[in-house]
């Protein structure tokens, strides 16, 4: 595990690939490639690091959503709009363990307060698999919210893939 909120690039990419696996608009072949990259990253850097990558991306998307509304609409208030909207939708994922909601809410709060989400979460020890899964659902919900506000499905995926390509971590 890295220190001071630093996450290995491969883990961040794999964390986004977990979104692409969950996203029903991802074409089947791309979904399979994303699933393979996630498995490869878990073998290479470990499940914990990929989970930390997900926590990192939750922070990034939360920052995007509260800094500037996609599509030019009104900015979301993190405490009244963003966090409650995400937490209310978590039960729609059957596999979302309700016991993990306080920790994922804490990560969202840390992001809303401008804190380093990974460093904040690292203070509580390793991320158990049940919690990691819920962070993945939160990431999907944030991405879905971003796309809804932009009024264009796939907007955040395109933005994230362009970011990874510019970092030299493109698909392949």
Top keywords for this entry?
single chain, 172 residues, mainly alpha
Could you provide a short overview of the structure?
This protein is mostly helical. It has helices at 9-22, 28-45, 47-67, 78-89, 101-112, 117-122, 129-150, 155-166.
Number of helices: 8
Largest sheet: none
Helix content: 55-70%
How much β-strand is present in the residues? under 5%
Average pLDDT over all residues = 89
Q: Spell the H/E element sequence.
A: HHHHHHHH
Note down, in words, how this protein is organized:
The protein is globular. It has helices spanning 9-22, 28-45, 47-67, 78-89, 101-112, 117-122, 129-150, 155-166. 35% of the residues are buried. It has 172 residues and is mainly alpha-helical. The protein contains 8 helices and no strands. It starts with 8 loop residues before the first helix and ends in a 6-residue tail after the last helix.
List the helices and strands and how they pair.
Layout: H1 9-22, H2 28-45, H3 47-67, H4 78-89, H5 101-112, H6 117-122, H7 129-150, H8 155-166
